[in-house]
Amino acid sequence: MSIAASVPDTPVASVAEAIARMEAIDAALPAADGVACFNRMYLAVIQEVNSRISAGFFADPVFMAQLDVTFANLYFTAAGALGDLAAVPLAWLPLAERRDMAGIEPIQFALAGMNAHINHDLPLALVRTCAALATSPDADPHFADYQKVDELLDGAEQSFRESFETAAELAVDRHLAAVADLIGNWTINDARDLAWTNCLLLWAVRDDPIARGLFLDTLAASTALASRLLLVAV
Q1: CA-CA distances (angstroms) from residue 49 to 71, 93, 94, 218?
Q2: What are the respective helix, strand and coil percentages of the chain, to the nearest 5?
Q3: What is the pLDDT of residues 130-175, one digit of tens each?
């Protein structure tokens, strides 16, 4: 399944463009596709964040909008490479390889996508945004605004989990119960806490090509490993 037509080579330049591109991806993919499962969750989140940016929820809306755009473009790069697995970034490869595998539930696909995007892409996006805006991660109010997103993501994650983990289904379906156990220890907020720490580390070595390369290689490999564990058919 190709979504190349929905993901042009050119990066988006605004949050509105990012939302439109995710809507195009959603329309292009079957609902059961693993990338589509992640895309739906991401689309709901970015729409909520965008509404909060417009409403003055963040102390530095310019920074948050730039971060959203930079962050989304990393996902679009991965999505645009789905037709050629050799070109897919390592952190995204497990989802790309298993997106149509039987026995994997939508919640697993969604969280594996979030794992790739948050654990790998978010530190990169934060560092690139700081560099583009001539600021740094430890400058006010970046961390405070970053934490404000956690409450929005927590609600989105909980809603997605609840749509899957109904008590009645879990009581009678051992497969669903096994999936619930598998994904129970992964949370978006924990991943974002780690992403912020990795952002600080990446910022500290940004001028050292060797250290930066080693760090990014390790980050991609560890992220891919976590996604493979989330994408086990049970």
Answers
A1: 13, 27, 27, 30
A2: 75, 0, 25
A3: 999 999 999 999 999 999 998 777 766 666 666 655 554 545 455 5
